[in-house]
Structure prediction request, 404 residues.
Amino acid sequence: MANEPKTGTGPLAGLRLIEMGTLLAGPFCGQLMGDFGAEVLKVEPPGQGDPMREWGREKSHGMSLWWPVVARNKKSVTLNLREAEGQAIARDLIAKADFLLENFRPGTLERWNLSYPELQKINPRLIMIRVSGFGQTGPYAKRAGFGAVGEAMGGLRYVCGDPATPPSRMGISIGDSLAATFACVGALSALYYRERTGQGQVVDSAIYEAVLNMMESLITEYDKTGYVRERTGAILPNVAPSNVYPTRDGGMILIAANQDTVFGRLAEAMRRPELAKDERYATHTARGMRQQELDDLIADWTRTIDAAPLEQLMDKFGIPSGKIYRTPEMLEDAHFRARDAIVKTMHPKFGELRMQNVAPKLSATPGGIHSPAPELGQHSEEIYRSLLNFDSARIADLRARGII
Prediction:
């Protein structure tokens, strides 16, 4: 295409994405695309920017530590989409893009004269990625729909937490991130179709549907048996043993030995090989029926061993296990270091900054973090000059009138 994108390395190098979303449900999709090399132009309101610039745990000098992660590998361009002149400029940018990403309430882009049928006239190859609480159609489409609501209606909240308490939330914004991840999958699927046909299309990712798609057999269990999953705390009912167990030194270790052969190895490690042949524990079904009893038996054993030697013993016998990690443990772990799961990046204000690396890893065209999160409007002049051929006088005029 004309005005080839300036991108990092990665399989999406040479593609351009216009990101008009805010907070997380849209921008996390943009982060994923940028991580793999797409040029991501983040369009933000002049003088205001994405609220995510202020969200998350802050350092003492008041800067968000979430923004450097979700806005990495992006360029910030300011543009007032509520003004007709700003909408006209947006259409000119979109004409030179491969993707348009947004997570406004459905109908917003249509009010701004940026509907997909209108945009397809100027860019038939455009793939529009739309992330919202309830999708672009249906009776709930125009409802406000934050990630927490999608988690609740998608079934996740009800099954999270202790059965003795009201439903719990995850410690992260999982609904938003799941919808963004499904949006990325849809965008790449649409890209493959476009390469064969030359035609773009709309990717419609709803938060509640993204959550629903992670709910395993919840629907079919109810459909065929009337069973409703309840909150079960640290376990999955009838999957045993698979739980967090205490150690002598006050630690915790997760042991997952619910497969018959693996349970046999655990019984050997415990020096109780007879357990694997005991009819109460010999099969997956039998162990599930005596889940609490079996967990108590294993916990009595793990309490006699410190965490480190217990983990080594599990590894020796080929039993899936792992400590319950917090960030300090992640930073100290040799496996994390060997795979560069956490990397050091440079930030103009924070200096050296550690964050999670790009995932998954590709052998031939790996992604990477090639630029830090931008300041508001940092790339406006560069983009308007290079893509739209605006001169200094026009840029100054548009800024003075609050258009860019």
